[in-house]
Each structure stands twice: as C-alpha cells, then as structure tokens.
Design goal:
284 residues, alpha/beta, L-arginine/glycine Amidinotransferase, Chain A, 7 helices, 15 strands
C-alpha cells in the first residue's frame, strides 16, 4: 500500500495577515494529523489548499492543475496568479484548463466523481459543452464519468464538499431542510446520486447557519466538510450543541478513529477541514 501524505499551508506571516485565526488553529490540527500521517507544510499564499492544489489521477498518480480562477472572497486576479505560480513551482503538473476548484470534486466509493454544475463549465442549453468539460476533467481524475448536480441559485462558491461527502458506501449530506427551496434542491441532488447508487445509504449531518455572518461565506456549522484519510476521519467542531451528535453519527459509518477538531474561528473564513487539506498517494 502506498503512503498517503497530507499537504497543508504553512502559517507564514503573509498567510496570517489574511487569516489571523490560522495561528491558533494550526498547531492543534497539525499535531492531530501527524499522529496518523506524514504531513508536508507548503509555503503558499493561501490556506484553502483543496481548492487550488493539483488533483491526482486515481489510476496513474499523475498531478493535474485545474484552471483555478475563483470569483469570490479575496481572490483578486493578482492574488490568483500568485497562487497558481506557487503551485507550479512546487509540483510537477500536467495542465487541465477547466475552470474548476478542487472543492467542487467529491469521489464516490467506486471512484465515481460528483461536481456541481456551473455556467463557467458549460451551459445546460448547449449539451456539447458538457461533453467538452468531461473530456477535459475525466482524464485528469482517472474516471470515466462525471455526475453533475444542480447548483443553488446565487451560490457564490459552488463547492460540493460543503454539501456532500462519502465514507465507504455511506453518503453524508448537509441537512439544509430548514429552507423550502434548499430542501427541494437537496432532494433533486439526492435523486441524481441515487441514479448511480440505487442502494445508497444517506445520513444527514446538521447544518447550522452562522448568524454572525451576513455575507453567507462562513462555514461555521457546516459539518459535512470533514476530512477522511486512509487512517482516520477528522471532523470539524464548532462549540455548538450538535458537535457530539455529529461525531456519534460518523462513528457509525467507519472503524477508523474519528477525531474532532475545533474549527470555530477558522471556519468563519469560509471553509473547514476538507478545504484546508489535500492528500496524495505515493511519491510525487
């Protein structure tokens, strides 16, 4: 079995200017990770490495750099160029020009890939464009097919790892049934997933809105943004009553150690454990 290495951003002065809460969060998270895995700290301009580090082809192990060019938060054109330049300096990559963030990719138990639709990827009114997007993405990921789920109207980020993730054959879904529109969207998405996995076991994880964030970018209360590695499952905690409930639910789906990590402050920047990490198999 190949060694799985976890990559995270080093808390450099430049990073801490943008994300000061990363200073207090980093030591505990790093210590939790190295108990189970080799961990590499990278000097990068940003902490959300899931979104911009290369994706790994599941068949060949090659790294492919996607066309990371987001339109949210603090990603100015200059900052985005800095990020992409840093990545290409650190890794030997092949190019995949599709404008897709890594946070919009979730793999199923047999390697099937799920993404949210986006007009930046293709227009649904032009079927040929979806085919072109898949022609670019499938060889990069080592998969035969992409399952595209509908995107929420007005979604500023479009990252599927804030909605769903798998552990084994269990699908964990962020429970957004507190809103009629989101509830309808949730079941439309589940219907598409069940077209692929007809005997799917789905579990809802609480989704608690952060009342202190009028922008809607805070991820505090989004429990589905956990990190499953080869050896453990790391689950965000937010000092909320739902914390222990979530840990108990996830323990029912795995024999791996389940480790709770306090993400109360770091999540206010827009992500949690899955967003902060990228795992690679073997020697790069």
């Amino acid at each position: 079995m190949s060694v799985q290495t976890i990559y995270i951003a080093k808390p450099t002065p430049e990073v801490l200017k943008i994300y000061p809460a990363y200073r207090g969060f980093f030591p505990g998270f790093y210590e939790a990770l190295i108990e189970f895995h080799p961990v590499k700290m990278l000097e990068l301009p940003d902490i959300w490495v899931r979104d911009f580090l290369p994706v790994q082809n599941s068949k060949t192990g090659e790294l492919f750099q996607l066309g990371f060019n987001p339109r949210y938060a603090n990603y100015t054109p200059k900052f985005t160029i800095e990020i992409n330049t840093a990545v290409r300096r650190l890794f030997p990559v092949r190019e995949c020009v599709l404008p897709l963030d890594g946070g919009n990719i979730v793999r199923g138990p047999d390697g099937m890939v799920f993404c949210l639709e986006s007009r930046r990827l293709f227009r649904k009114s032009v079927p040929e464009e979806q085919g072109l997007a898949e022609d670019a993405l499938c060889p990069a990921l080592g998969t035969e097919h992409i399952v595209w789920l509908p995107r929420e109207i007005g979604d500023k980020v479009g990252h599927i790892d804030g909605f769903m993730q798998f552990i084994g054959d269990t699908l964990f879904v962020s429970d957004e049934r507190f809103d009629p529109y989101l509830e309808q969207l949730l079941y439309r998405r589940l219907e598409k997933v069940r077209q692929v996995y007809w005997n799917l076991k789905a579990r809802f994880l609480p989704c608690v809105q952060d009342a202190a964030d009028p922008s809607g970018l805070s991820a505090r209360g989004v429990y589905v943004n956990f990190l499953e590695t080869a050896c453990a499952v790391f689950v965000p905690k937010y000092n909320l009553p739902q914390d222990e409930e979530v840990l108990a639910i996830i323990k029912t789906a795995t024999d791996k150690p389940v480790v709770g990590i306090d993400c109360t402050e770091i999540a206010r920047y827009g992500g949690a454990l899955h967003c902060l990490t990228r795992e690679y198999e073997g020697e790069l």
